[in-house]
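Dear H.,

Thanks for agreeing to be a second pair of eyes. The structure we're designing against is below in token form, covering all 147 positions.
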């Protein structure tokens, strides 16, 4: 007779601790250096990072890199316990944040579309975006401009 496996509860705090450790290593590789955020968008919570990509000209323009799908409230809660000072931002619901990378405007704790002037600036000065998936392979990633 085959033994039945007992389903175990997920140890959210252990998973969050591992995530935070990995995120710290990834953030060290970002240029310009980013910081971890939790983003609420359309009633879902996502983990990600923000980079200020036009700091000299437009300090409120950021590159958001986020998880593709919303995460469970238990996981988000565990991340918050691991990083109580982690920035929590709300993205305007009219944005299309499907996908992972987005150029946006940060206004205090809100993510919104860029102004037309900012969008023109970014179109004329779009930074090259390279994402390392394995530490060896580098790929070009599609980005989205919002105005």
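And this is the sequence the design step returned. I haven't edited it by hand at all.
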């Amino acid at each position: 007779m085959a033994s039945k496996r007992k389903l175990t509860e997920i140890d959210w705090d252990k998973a969050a601790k591992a995530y935070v450790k990995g995120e710290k290593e990834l953030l060290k590789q970002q240029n310009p250096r980013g910081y971890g955020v939790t983003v609420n968008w359309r009633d879902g919570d996502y983990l990600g990072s923000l980079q200020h990509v036009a700091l000299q000209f437009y300090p409120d323009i950021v590159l958001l890199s986020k998880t593709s799908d919303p995460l469970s409230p238990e996981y988000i809660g565990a991340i918050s316990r691991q990083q109580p000072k982690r920035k929590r931002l709300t993205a305007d619901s009219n944005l299309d944040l499907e996908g992972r990378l987005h150029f946006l405007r940060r206004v205090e704790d809100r993510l919104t579309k860029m102004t037309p002037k900012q969008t023109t600036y970014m179109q004329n000065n779009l930074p090259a975006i390279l994402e390392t998936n394995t530490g060896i392979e580098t790929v070009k990633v599609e980005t989205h401009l919002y105005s």
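Two observations from my side: The helical segments are 12-29, 73-82, 116-124. Confidence is low (pLDDT under 50) at residues 134-142.

Warmly,
E.
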